[in-house]
Design brief:
Helix content: 25-40%
């Protein structure tokens, strides 16, 4: 993304805040894996959204006043020895080119500067990114500094910046939509690679290798989230990451995958018979999901409550399952539909957004129809990415084979 994008994101945030506000956002720190080995660093998504910077131990400090906002970026300084071992650090010029912030200071100056600001009587509240899902999660820097501020400056109010950033991230900008389109193209290449390599006897890790290789050919070295790729009975584990199973003749291959481009992540699920031809029973169930998906893309438009999307999916798919004799009443649908049918995508695969808003132009979310029939050994989902437009919607992942005919045709080119 261009630096103007990140500048605009910050300006929108500052306009929502009261004068006398201090904003503190942290990229985060590496987490130790074992011994002297750390997990690969992954920057806080809100920090990246506002700055474009993914380097560890980086801090955005913004002082919002009536007529001006002062921004400072604290970063690790150049260190030839550290960079020899762990890679190049951003220079001040490079950080400015990405973020649009020209006031950049060494990380060591952050704590003394913070104390001076908090002691100045010019700050009445501090905004931090409180994002824990569970209370027993390790403390991020937001929580560490929250405790420090509470102990040393108890008169300063602390507030969560999350609600405002959720609101901003809900509606995608044109450059974000274009990035998502590019991610869809790359995901298509990965799924087609798996389809066209597919054959009975393949192991799930071999399908994954095809997907990873296809993404790497487009410069995507890490997918948007850990791929879910399973075969046969393993399809009945919704979040399956073993990759050890083997596809037997007649098995369906389920995958739930997504590439990332310019930090935008898509999320697409496809299923296909490993031998290239759907059985009659597979066709019957798959067509239920496909018709439900087609119906959803024909009706979704601005104004529909987001909470209604999943309800509509379940009710319409129930009627399809009822038509083929699998369900007799709506109370039974939970036996075959195990998960929700819609979630937003963006900087996170389950994007952190304002779920109270009705469907609005610029929203991108998944339309996800899963059917899991354990008694017949068939489990799969059909998941696409829906962009809400001014008059309706667009299926951004329609470029990836999704009907029975399209899938069998793609696999016939093996």
């Amino acid at each position: 993304m261009k630096r103007e994008y990140h500048i605009e994101n910050r300006e929108t945030l500052y306009k929502s805040l009261e004068p006398g506000s201090l904003v503190l956002l942290f990229s985060g720190y590496e987490i130790r894996k074992t011994g002297d080995e750390n997990y690969p660093f992954f920057a806080n998504r809100n920090f990246v959204y506002l700055t474009g910077i993914s380097q560890q131990e980086s801090i955005l400090l913004s002082i919002v006043q009536e007529n001006e906002t002062k921004e400072i970026l604290f970063m690790l300084p150049s260190d030839l020895l550290a960079e020899r071992w762990n890679g190049k650090r951003l220079t001040q010029t490079e950080a400015y080119e990405v973020s649009g912030i020209d006031n950049i200071k060494p990380l060591a100056e952050f704590k003394p500067f913070l104390d001076r600001v908090l002691s100045s009587n010019e700050i009445s509240r501090v905004y931090l990114d409180f994002d824990k899902l569970k209370a027993d999660e390790p403390d991020s820097y937001a929580y560490i500094y929250s405790k420090y501020i509470k102990e040393n400056y108890p008169f300063i109010l602390q507030k969560n910046i999350q609600p405002q950033l959720k609101k901003q991230r809900t509606i995608k900008k044109p450059c974000e939509i274009e990035a998502m389109r590019e991610a869809e193209k790359i995901t298509r290449a990965g799924i087609l690679a798996m389809m066209q390599a597919s054959k009975p006897g393949m192991y799930e890790y071999q399908y994954k290798a095809e997907f990873d290789y296809a993404l790497a050919q487009h410069g995507v070295l890490t997918p948007g989230f850990p791929p879910i790729i399973s075969a046969g009975k393993n399809n009945f584990c919704i979040h399956y990451y073993s990759y050890r199973g083997q596809a037997m003749d007649g098995d369906l291959i389920l995958n739930d995958v997504g590439a990332t481009w310019n930090n935008m992540i898509n999320d697409v699920s496809r299923a296909w018979p490993c031998n290239g031809k759907f059985s009659e029973k597979q066709k019957l169930l798959y067509q239920c999901a496909y018709e439900t998906s087609e119906y959803m893309f024909s009706i979704l438009k601005p104004g529909i409550p987001m909470a209604d999307v999943d309800k509509i999916i379940r009710k319409y798919n129930f009627e399809r399952l009822k038509d083929i004799g699998l369900c007799s009443n709506y109370d039974e649908v939970g036996k075959y539909m195990w998960h929700g049918g819609a979630h937003h995508v963006g900087y996170d695969v389950h994007d952190v957004v304002d779920m109270t808003l009705p469907l609005t132009p610029g929203m991108i979310f998944c339309v996800d129809i899963g059917i899991y029939c354990e008694e017949c050994g068939i489990g799969f989902r059909l998941e696409d990415n829906c962009l809400i437009t001014e008059t309706g919607c667009e299926n951004l992942s329609a470029i990836i084979p999704r009907s029975i005919e399209e899938i069998e045709e793609a696999m016939g080119k093996r």
